[in-house]
Amino acid sequence: MFAAAMGIAGVFEILRPSASIANFQELTHPADRDTYAVAGFDLLSGFTFQVPEVSCDDPRGLQILQSNEIPESVRSLDNQKVVIQGYMFPLKSSERRVKEFLILRDHSWCCYGEIPEINEWIIVKSETGFKPLLDVPINFYGKLRVGEKFDENRFLVGVYQMDCDAIGPPYFNNSDYNRPVY
Question: Helix, strand or coil for residue 11?
Answer without folding.
Answer: helix
